[in-house]
Amino acid sequence: MISKIRSLGIRGIGGYEVSVECFLSNGLPAFDIVGLPDTAVKEARDRVRAAIKNAGLSFPVSRLTINLAPADTKKGGTTYDLPVLLSVLCCSGAIKAPEEDCAFFGELGLTGELRPVRGALPMALAAARTGIKKLFVPADNAPEAAFAEGLEVYPVRDVQALLRHFTEEEALGPAQTPQVCETAAHIPDFSEVKGQENVKRALEVAAAGGHNLLLVGPPGAGKSMLAKRLPAILPDMSRAEALETTEIHSVAGMTSRERPLVVQRPFRSPHHTLSASAMAGGSQLQPGEISLAHNGVLFLDELPEFHRDVLEVMRQPLEDGKVTISRSAGNASYPAGFMLVCAMNPCKCGWYGHPSGRCSCTESAVQKYHGKISGPLLDRVDIIVEVPALAFDELRAKAPAEKSAEIKKRVDAARQIQRKRFSGAGPDCNARMEQKQMRAHCALSEDCEALMKAAFERMGLTARSYDRILRVARTIADLDGAELIGPNHLAEAIQYRTYDFREPAQRARASVNP
Q1: Residues of the chain with CATH 3.30.230.10
Q2: Are 197 and 190 in contact (CB under 8 A)?
Q3: Residue 245 and residue 255: Cα distance in Å, rounded?
Q4: Which of the ends of the chain has fewer CB neighbours closer than 10 A, N or C?
Q5: Is the dihedral of CA 439, 441, 447, 451 positive or negative?
Q6: CA-CA distances (angstroms) from residue 164 to 23, 114, 175, 291, 477?
Q7: Domain spanning 433-514 has what CATH number?
Q8: 507: exposed, middle or buried (C-beta count within 10 Å: 0-12, 13-18, 19+)?
């Protein structure tokens, strides 16, 4: 006798349908699972056997063969415990086969309780796409899976409750889509920062256009403090962005019953000891830091301390907005549309170029320190801004600084201009404009052309740097509500590219005076 139960699986960060087939035959008792299962899937045999007996049912004393189709795709995790159990019970005649439009997933405890699994939302979205109407999941996964539209999600606490539902003794009720609290977690406010108005302006421009940013300054100047306040001025996520971000975090096991949907833009700040695999994606096709920061911010503090291969991993994702990795477990593509925000000291000791003259680094040591960051990576940073050490009078100033809420209003207004400009068919912000959009929206007047030519020749800009200056200038014009890019907008954008890690006097001579 053969039975078939519909289930779901995860490939990368996307879901796909899995058919769990059971064949019961005569012969010596055995329980085999085929279809490229990993160790966790094979161990389902013992969990299923114990759960069936503890549910008060008899486990068939026969030869059982479980096939997980498609059989040429590797299966991992404990997702298939529940459908394997149901296929065994259906095949032995202990229960009637569920309706064709039903699907199941969940991990079993030995007592028959259902435990949550990773990837509930992407599997629920895949179920809706494949025509499944009813999805039975562990109770702790139900709030997350309920965000999939066109699908009834039934929370199941244990096998006994599911069997009572099938026998109509006690029907399970479908889960309701949770009311997500839109109030973001506490983020430090910009009003708490003394001085550094030029840096706040750079952060505002970066947030308004989604631009990559590098902060350079001595220890204690406030680089990390300012970067950690950036999420407070970023625009709110749309529902589509929230679902996309939640899919990634769900596969990584970072969602919960209390936090089923990611509504606040991610802010990832990994330690500089992480590996290239942890940055791009792990050996088991788990998303890496650049994907966990999708639709949010990836903050790299002490940038030169990161290993060279870790930094170089980001070059392609920064251009394409996605990362494709190949591991022993297979291949996967992850979204990686993040804002890169970095902070670093000007030298190893941190005081290079400081008026106090306390820097103890030699010129060669400074060059070696800067050489840890490749030119191609720096070329992908839109804004480079110096964070000077504060004077005593600035620290003692009692005048209130501008609040994050006021800055966010200007950022939201600029983003609204960009959404209207691209009309949903193009990029979501200026930083991701392609050549077609740039030709249409970044036209320069004669004065701007002359200014840009002078900057290009004097600063030795590349074609990529040229494009990034135009994108930043477009964002500055949007913040001003200007239809066209003006010389003042372009001059400010050029100013954000003048830092070249040389002596302060040389940098001043190399900068363009508008």
Answers
A1: 2-166
A2: no
A3: 11
A4: N
A5: negative
A6: 25, 15, 17, 41, 64
A7: 1.10.8
A8: middle
Residues of the chain with CATH 3.40.50.300: 190-404
What is the chain's mean pLDDT, rounded? 89
pTM: 0.89
Residue 38 backbone class (left: φ over 0; alpha: ψ -120 to 50; beta: rest):
beta
Residue 195 has pLDDT above 90, yes or no: no
The pLDDT of residue 124: 97
3-class SS letters over 61-99: CCEEEEEEECCCCCECCCCCHHHHHHHHHHHHCCCCCCC
Residue 356: the pLDDT is 76
Mapping DSSP to helix (H, G, I), strand (E, B) and coil, where does residue 103 land?
strand
DSSP count for the chain of H helices, then E strands: 22, 16
**pLDDT > 60? residue 506:** no
Asked if 146 and 175 count as a contact pair (C-beta separation under 8 A), the reply is yes
Q: What pLDDT score does 505 carry? A: 36
Average pLDDT over residues 330-340: 89
Domain limits, CATH 1.10.8, in the chain: 433-514
More confident residue, 409 or 197: 409
CB contact set of 268 (below 8 Å; sequence gap of 6+): 289, 292, 293, 296, 297, 298, 299, 338
190-404 is classed in which CATH architecture?
3-Layer(aba) Sandwich (3.40)
**Region of poorest pLDDT, from 25-39, 240-254, 288-302, 327-341:** 327-341
Query: How many residues are given for the chain?
Result: 514
Structure-token pair, residue 2: 């053969």
CB atoms near residue 79 (< 10 Å)? 25
Closest to 165 in 3D by CA, of 174, 469, 275: 174
pLDDT of the residue at 188: 87
- 2-166 fold: Ribosomal Protein S5; domain 2 (3.30.230)
